[in-house]
Amino acid sequence: MKPNLAPISKACPMIRGPILEINSLRKVFHIDGSSLTVLDGIDFSVDKGEMICILGRSGCGKSTLLKMLAGFLSPSSGEILLNGKPVADPGPDRCVVFQEDTLFPWLTVKENIAFGLKGRARNKKTFDEEVERFLSLVGLSEFRNYLPREISGGMKQRVALARVLILKPEVLLMDEPFASLDAQTRDEMQNFLLSLWENLSHTIIFVTHDVTEAVTLADRILVMNKDPGRIREEIRVDLPRPRKREKSDFLFFSRKLYEGLRE
Ligand SMILES: Nc1ncnc2c1ncn2[C@@H]1O[C@H](COP(=O)(O)OP(=O)(O)OP(=O)(O)O)[C@@H](O)[C@H]1O
Ligand SMILES: [Mg+2]
After folding, report:
1. What is the mean pLDDT of residues 171-188?
2. How far is CA 162 from the centre of its chain?
3. By residue range, what is the domain housing residue 186?
4. Which of 146, 228, 247, 249 could pair covalently with 150 via S-S, beta carbons 3.0-4.6 A apart?
5. Which residues neighbour 19 within 8 Å (Cβ) at sequence distance 6 or greater?
6. What is the Rg, in whole angstroms, of the alpha carbon atoms belonging to the chain?
7. How many domains does the chain contain in total?
8. Which one of 30, 32, 40, 63 would you pick to mutate in the ligand 1 pocket, going by the greatest count of ligand atoms within 8 A of its CB?
9. Beta carbons of 168 and 55 less than 8 angstroms apart
């Protein structure tokens, strides 16, 4: 099964200035009369078309940060600006792909992909064409009538991707989307995501705790530390794509990140 995409070229998508600005973001949870500051002093901006990885150990607040960017959680203080406007609620301009399988189990692959588009397409013909285009884009045309339980984990994540990409979000938020896949499928999905990114030029914020995944994917890596979660370092990965893991420059970045996470 091959996605219907051109091979990855060395160039990255066009970068045209900031789309997201995050200023002095802070999140405090209140539980049973005590408060827990999970994120504090988070500042960064994301350029249009950029692939950002947020890297950090378990519990440092990566998912909390992503949920705030998605509008599922509100900040305790600070602001999130999308194209200069404050983010207050969830919206179709920011879509999320999670680690766990979030497909509707009673709908087929095609129906899952089509779900969010209902009521948005101009007419039935446009609707059908769009669904077919995205089925083909993720290489699942032949599996259109399968149910989620009848396809593999990697295929499910392709459906999850198609289901949000069809909505043409401005920013794609991904929370460890390949973490539950085996190593080989994970590699394939990383290459697949890079191909999609190159073709569709989305802005992507990808959360991971996996150093190799971050160096494989990112233009820029934001390394977080914990208690409270802060961005301790920003690393620009200026390696040409496709990136080879055995190469010395790849290993240089990996080592640097491992050291940063250990401190
Ligand atoms: N709704 C909530 N209420 C209270 N505490 C929360 C809530 N959500 C997250 N936390 C706490 O915030 C901290 C950060 O959690 P978060 O899920 O953001 O971490 P993470 O970096 O995504 O971890 P992982 O890599 O394991 O997914 C944890 O201590 C967690 O217990
Ligand atoms: Mg998480």
Report:
1. 93
2. 13
3. 18-93+170-262
4. 146
5. 46, 47, 48, 82, 83, 170, 171, 203
6. 18
7. 2
8. 63
9. no
Q: 26 and 79: one domain?
A: yes
Q: How confident is the model at residue 261 (pLDDT cuts 50, 70, 90)?
A: confident
Contact 157, 6 (CB under 8 A): no
User: Residue whose CA is closest, atom 6 of ligand 1?
Assistant: 29
Q: 242 preceded by cis ω (within 30°)?
A: yes
Residue among 6, 39, 10 nearest 23 (CA): 39
Joined tokens for residue 91: 């919206």
pTM: 0.91
Residues facing residue 36 across a β-bridge: 29
| pLDDT tens track for 199-237 | 888 899 999 999 999 999 999 999 999 989 999 999 999
CATH label of the domain that carries residue 62: 3.40.50.300
